[in-house]
Amino acid sequence: xxxxxxxxxxxxxxxxxxxxxxxxxxxxxxxxxxxxxxxxxxxxxxxxxxxxxxxxxxxxxxxxxxxxxxxxxxxxxxxxxxxxxxxxxxxxxxxxxxxxxxxxxxxxxxxxxxxxxxxxxxxxxxxxxxxxxxxxxxxxxxxxxxxxxxxxxxxxxxx
Length: 159
What we know:
Number of strands: 7
Helix content: 25-40%
Order of helices and strands: EEHEEHEHHEHE
Largest sheet: 4 strands, mixed
Protein name: DUF3990 domain-containing protein
InterPro entries: DUF3990
Number of domains: 1
Pfam family, one: DUF3990
Shape: globular
Structural class: alpha+beta
């Protein structure tokens, strides 16, 4: 691999040689996009979440300095506000967004914050002991060209 390149993973029910940005019923943390992670175990969980079997897709990501990128290195006030906007349906102009992923527990805390059930201070009190995972999302066709498919492999729920 060249300098700056990284291996990214995407969990799915199928091989995704040609990633797409699809509109869905619900907005995700960073709005509609093609989501990957640095963590193969996390992609494995994504792949098996519905049926107990799926595919982990592997890509080489080559950063492109012409793309507009937003990166959150940790959960911050700016990260929380960005997720609240995205989940509320407000789109953004970034090609790529990278940062912590709200796992199921943190997702619930964010939803409670959005719904006004807990305060911002309560969110941070609840979230501070939770370790978020990683996500990088691609939001434009140009961003998707930074990914090169390597392989896909089947994974299963080991339970």
